[in-house]
Amino acid sequence: DDGDDRAVFHQMSLMTDNLPPFTGEDRSAYSFLRSTDGGKTWSDPIVVSNRTEFEPGAPFNDKNTLTADSINTRFVYGTWQLLKDVLPDDDSAIPLQFFYSDTFFVRSRNKGRSWEPARAIYKIRDDVTLLAAAGIDPNVTPIFGAQNIGHQIVVLPDRRLVNVSQARFSIPG
Q1: Which residue intervals of the chain are DSSP H helices?
Q2: Which tens digit of pLDDT belongs to each residue from 59-106?
Q3: Which strand (E) or helix (H) includes residue 153?
Q4: Distance, first Cα to last Cα, the chain
Q5: Residues 10-22: tens digit of each pLDDT
Q6: Shortest CA distance to 159 belongs to which of 112, 107, 114?
Q7: Contact 108, 76 (CB under 8 A)
Q8: Residue 28 and residue 82: Cα distance in Å, rounded?
Q9: Cβ distance 13 to 30 under 8 Å?
Q10: How far is CA 10 from the centre of its chain?
């Protein structure tokens, strides 16, 4: 630990704006703020983004959660889904019709003063085992969309992290 025993409050906020006129797409990212005085004042936001600006597939960051590590208070974790439209050259292992979401993760090792780059930790579009376990054969049943939502990072007593979430597939009917 860094010797700083003050309580730290954390906030994770979705930020959106419209791209220049007539693009029809949004730009989105998450920002992280921290307070060391019980929420009276907050730090400047630290923006963490997965580069959705001008990216094909109309990506949108959504459904975030923030977890402060109760075992080691230096660590704070954020997770969310990046929702994307399917493109003709999509590299999915599962053939999808309309959309999917990748799971993103970010971590601070210093009580939220700085954040590691966001990275994809799970791609539902590649989880053919999960689809098979649900009894869905994509060669027979079209898959309109695949989402992994409702993320929550859980810190186990042995300090391993688990991302608890829900997988959702959209199929006809």
Answers
A1: 128-133
A2: 788 889 999 999 999 999 999 998 888 877 777 888 888 889 989 999
A3: strand 143-155
A4: 53
A5: 999 888 776 555 4
A6: 107
A7: yes
A8: 10
A9: yes
A10: 17
